[in-house]
């Protein structure tokens, strides 16, 4: 059995007071969780949140990581810097970064490599747009995105990544893939991982993301290859995030 991971993606939300209140609320409601838990917070708050989650079951994550280790890359944050703040995870290739910041499959693959090389676990996001789904291209698109990363990390990297399938049309829209729709894509991704390395491929956590909420989390996470969730909106309310953790 793969352990489940429930990871919050706060996106560009929060503030010193709101973060403290949210994390206090989550910590107060955690009752012997049986899954991995993470919050991926905006970079300026890594230091604050590192202190707030210390000693709890909550791991810290960032929302992006540079494909470079250091140097003249204005605005970038390296994996080494993230490590100094106790980051276990970094989201890589979120669809908002792919679409608003032009991140290519190649760039996402390089960021994944840098994260792994520095001991940060990348949560690699993949997913199709609505028009791609309607054109019957879901498996092609997701397959291409996954292949780019696998080609860069090789079988050795498999044990060091998390993948998140996030259909772009389901993110922040309240539309969720049905458990069966999501499972179909997760199974395709799993097949690729297992083809690269049978044992390691079976162990990779594949999360679902896209309007996962307390009322649909259990059904989604009970599918064979859905190993948790990457949660946007519902991770900003302690009660909702806790309910999803309980469902896992
Ligand atoms: P959502 O976001 O849960 O608000 O749809 C998920 C994500 O973008 O990671």
Explain the overall architecture.
By secondary structure, the chain is of the alpha/beta class. The chain has a single domain (5-247), classed as TIM Barrel (Alpha-Beta Barrel), CATH 3.20.20. The protein is 46% helix and 16% strand. It has an 8-stranded parallel beta barrel, surrounded by 6 helices. The protein is globular and about 45 Å long. Bound molecules: 2-phosphoglycolic acid.
Tell me the layout of helices and strands.
Blueprint: E1 5-9, H1 16-29, E2 36-40, H2 46-53, E3 58-62, H3 79-84, E4 87-92, H4 95-100, H5 105-117, E5 121-126, H6 130-134, H7 138-157, E6 162-165, H8 179-196, H9 198-203, E7 205-209, H10 214-221, E8 228-231, H11 238-247
Parallel strand pairs: 1-2, 1-8, 2-3, 3-4, 4-5, 5-6, 6-7, 7-8
The protein binds 2-phosphoglycolic acid (PGA).
2-phosphoglycolic acid (PGA) binds at residues 9, 166, 171-172, 209-212, 230-234.
What tags apply to this protein structure?
single chain; 248 residues; alpha/beta; TIM Barrel; 8-stranded parallel β-barrel; 11 helices; 8 strands; 46% helix; globular; binds 2-phosphoglycolic acid
